């Protein structure tokens, strides 16, 4: 049962354009949503998060949008840079027995073409 | 500021052998997590420690797997009688209690069972 889904395994974008990565979830108990970036041979790096009570969070070139009614979130990167090329994991967190259990999607590989 | 470190980075072992991995979290983080990641998948939760107490274990963690965090600092993950299906990237992450959904990952240990 995949509670967090990233339906696009890969995405190619020209440098300077917008990258939009999408994520869907099924569990209504998730209260935080996160995006992680992963380069080859490294662990995932925390990028940005959003609380379930908000619909937008922005940090520099990265903006995450949350649509709770559709159980959908997206990450926008503007402008995209070649250094953004990586695998992006969507994740969602729910409070379980006193801690925040994080569930990850399968990832989207972003390639930014110079 | 040192991040999460893991040793070894790579381990090749023969089926049936025991292996042990080590994780050193960020020093002020009292929560520590182990995940497993296989090709094409996101990280899957294995187990969680708050200080030295192991508070949650996934069904993925069979009897052959054991994890410890003896003094609430570093942690070890041992796999006994390894099987080829254990081949994966084993990731460790740590977090503060106050924002435990925001987890910081180490580079991982890649295990290959031949």
Q: Could you spell the SSE succession of chain B in H and E letters?
A: EEEEEEEEEEE
Give a short account of the largest sheet of chain B: 7 strands, mixed
Helix coverage percent of chain A: under 10%
H-E string of chain A: EEEEEEEEEEE
Description:
The complex is a heterodimer of chains A (114) and B (114). Chain A is mainly β and 114 residues long. Chain A is 0% helix and 59% strand. Chain A has no helices and eleven strands. Chain A has strands spanning 4-5, 10-14, 19-25, 32-38, 45-51, 56-59, 62-67, 72-77, 86-96, 99-104, 108-113. In chain A, strands 2, 4, 5, 9, 10 and 11 form a six-stranded mixed sheet that branches. In chain A, strands 1-3-8-7-6 form a five-stranded antiparallel sheet, with no helix packed on it. By secondary structure, chain B is mainly β. Chain B is 0% helix and 49% strand. Chain B has strands at 5-7, 10-13, 19-24, 31-37, 44-50, 53-57, 65-68, 75-79, 88-95, 104-105, 109-113. Chain B starts with a strand and ends with a strand. The interface between A and B is medium-sized, with 27 and 26 residues.
Features:
heterodimer, A: 114 residues, mainly beta, six-stranded mixed beta sheet, five-stranded antiparallel beta sheet, 0% helix, B: 114 residues, seven-stranded mixed beta sheet, four-stranded antiparallel beta sheet, 11 strands
């Amino acid at each position: 049962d995949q509670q967090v889904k990233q339906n696009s395994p890969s995405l190619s974008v020209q440098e300077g354009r917008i990258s939009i990565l999408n994520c869907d979830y099924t569990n209504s108990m998730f209260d935080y949503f996160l995006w992680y970036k992963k380069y080859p041979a490294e662990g995932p790096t925390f990028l940005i998060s959003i609380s379930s009570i908000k619909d937008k969070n922005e940090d520099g070139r990265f903006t995450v949008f949350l649509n709770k009614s559709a159980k959908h979130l997206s990450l926008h990167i503007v402008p995209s840079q070649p250094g953004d090329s990586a695998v992006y994991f969507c994740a969602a967190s729910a409070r379980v027995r006193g801690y925040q259990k994080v569930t990850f999607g399968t990832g989207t590989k972003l390639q930014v073409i110079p | 500021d040192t991040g999460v470190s893991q040793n070894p980075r790579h381990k090749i072992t023969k089926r049936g052998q025991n292996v042990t991995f080590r994780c050193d979290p960020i020093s002020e983080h009292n929560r520590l997590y182990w995940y497993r990641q296989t090709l094409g998948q996101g990280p899957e939760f294995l187990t969680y420690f708050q200080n030295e107490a192991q508070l949650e274990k996934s069904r993925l963690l069979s009897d052959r797997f054991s994890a410890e965090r003896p003094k609430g600092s570093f942690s070890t993950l041992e796999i006994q009688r390894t099987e080829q299906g254990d081949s994966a990237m084993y990731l460790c992450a740590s977090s503060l209690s106050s924002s435990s959904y925001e987890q910081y990952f180490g580079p991982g240990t890649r295990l290959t069972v031949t």
